[in-house]
Design brief:
75% of the residues lie in helices and 5% in strands. It is built from 4 helices and 2 strands. The chain has helices at residues 17-39, 43-70, 75-97, 111-148; strands at residues 100-103, 106-109. A hairpin with a 2-residue loop joins strand 1 (100-103) and strand 2. The longest helix is centred in the last third of the chain and has 38 residues, at 111-148.
Length: 150
């Protein structure tokens, strides 16, 4: 992989190893997808990586949504989080389908469009949407410690 445009950092950590590992894998596959497009790989290769990204994201989203129920995350917030996940899956298809633009009667690939979406999808989703439940987990952990040490 020539260019890693999304790099994992401590800022993305949730405090839940399984979630962090899944987020790291999403970063890896997203980097692979962007690199396929940037290099102009065959459509079959690009689509295979896109499918891999979507399948992995759907699996991760289901796990994350189940975890939200298990940790007692407020139902309204959990439903909103689930809706956001579905919106992201729908948007990745739209971005893929519109990544090409006609300029001077030539079809031109727009890898920056994909890059911007993936950056927003992964980075902003984790730092805004997911960050809220990270705080919930932290608060639950603190309450458990306080309950254990009266």
């Amino acid at each position: 992989m020539a260019e890693k445009f999304i790099a994992w950092g401590k800022i993305f950590e949730s405090g839940v190893e399984e979630i962090d590992n899944e987020h790291k894998m999403l970063f890896h596959i997203a980097n692979q997808f962007y690199d396929n497009i940037r290099r102009g790989d065959d459509d079959a290769v690009v689509f295979e990586t896109l499918n891999k990204l979507i399948r992995y994201a759907e699996t991760h989203f289901r796990r994350e949504e189940n975890m939200l129920v298990e940790i007692g995350y407020p139902e309204e917030k959990a439903l909103r989080h689930k809706a956001h996940h579905q919106k992201l899956i729908n948007q990745i298809f739209e971005v893929y389908e519109t990544q090409f633009e006609v300029i001077n009667d030539r079809i031109v690939d727009q890898p920056d469009k994909v890059k911007a979406f993936l950056t927003d999808w992964l980075i902003m989703h984790i730092l805004t949407e997911d960050r809220d439940y990270f705080r919930h987990i932290e608060e639950q952990s603190l309450m458990s410690v306080e309950d254990a040490n009266p």
